[in-house]
C-alpha cells in the first residue's frame, strides 16, 4: 500500500533548529530546511555531518569551504555537500537559502552542533 501521508509546513510557523534553521517538510528519507536572512559573520568551524545536503541560494552571498575547496554561493546557484565531507560556511551578505538533507538532518541529533 502506498504511503498517503501529506505534510505541509508554513515557513512562518516552522520550528527552529539549534543554529537558527527553520525545519520545513520532512519525510522518512529526506527533509527541507530554510536559512532565512542569516547575518554576515566569521567562518563557522569546520564540521562533518552524517547526512548529504543539497542547497539553493535565494538571496545574499556566502562562501562554502569543502574539503579544501572554496566556492562562492550567490542567488540562483545550488550546491552539494556530500555526507561526511568536512565543510564550513561564511556568510558574506544577508543570506537566505533552502536545503534538503538525506537522511533528515533533524532526526537522531544529526543537526546539533558537534560536541566540543
Automatic annotation (TrEMBL):
* Region (Disordered), start-end ranges: 1-22
List the InterPro entries hit by this protein, alphabetically: Cupin_2, RmlC-like_jellyroll, RmlC_Cupin_sf
The Cupin type-2 domain is annotated at 40-91
Q: Which domain of life is it from?
A: Bacteria
**Alphabetized SUPFAM superfamilies for the sequence:** RmlC-like cupins
Comp. bias regions, Basic and acidic residues:
1-13
Q: What is the name listed in the Swiss-Prot or TrEMBL entry for this protein? A: Cupin domain-containing protein
Please name the source species. Answer: Plastoroseomonas hellenica
